[in-house]
UniProtKB/TrEMBL annotation:
Leader peptide range in chain numbering: none
Protein name, per record: DUF1000-domain-containing protein
Biased composition (Basic and acidic residues): 12-26
Source lineage: Eukaryota, Fungi, Dikarya, Basidiomycota, Agaricomycotina
Protein family according to the UniProt entry: Belongs to the PITHD1 family.
Xref: InterPro entries: Galactose-bd-like_sf, PITH1-like, PITH_dom, PITH_dom_sf
Domain PITH: residue ranges: 23-193
PANTHER family referenced in this protein's UniProt entry, alphabetically: AD039 HT014 THIOREDOXIN FAMILY TRP26, PITH DOMAIN-CONTAINING PROTEIN 1
Start and end residues of each stretch annotated as Disordered: 1-28
Domain of life of the organism encoding this protein: Eukaryota
Amino acid sequence: MAHHHNASCGHESNDHDHDEHIHDTSDAGPNDNLFMHIDRANVFALNANGNGPEVIKPWHERTSEEKSLESDSDDQLILRIPFTGSVKLRSLLLKTGPADQTPAKVAIFANEDALDFEDVNDKMPIQEFNVVQSREVGEYAVKAAKFSNVSSITLFFPASQGADTTRIYYVGFLGHWTERKYNPVITVYEAQANLADHEKIQGTNDIFSTSQT
């Protein structure tokens, strides 16, 4: 399959930048798909009929329209997506719509875990895209340098393209995931210290209760 300008695969022609990132759209999905590194249980949607995790789908369900997330009281929608580690983001994948239920734009914020509708109007997103009306999954390539150490992404959809509500079918990410680094020495030391404290307290309690009787 040619990798340039193939609308059906939803990838841009910049794949040649990184040979290791050239991928097909087989069920295995691209090897840099971050689906398995999303903390789905803590994905959260504001002003939505639904919670949010339903649009975080595995690669093979990316074109499915069975489950979707729709805005509630108007056409604005916020979706917060935490990761289980540190992510270097390369692309946002979106399937939205149909037609004028497609969001006009998507604004992307990183590491903002408590944004609400008041906050998003005061803060500048790191990047913003106009969303294309399509039944396909669109790939929006981000400025990777600005998303090099991401623990969560917040997506803000400020308006639909004319409908009363905005609808999202699929949200995905391409990029590189690394495990968060913890210092095991401190962890081991704390565990031992707690154990010693615990034993000492046990002993003190025994003496204390004996002297009471």
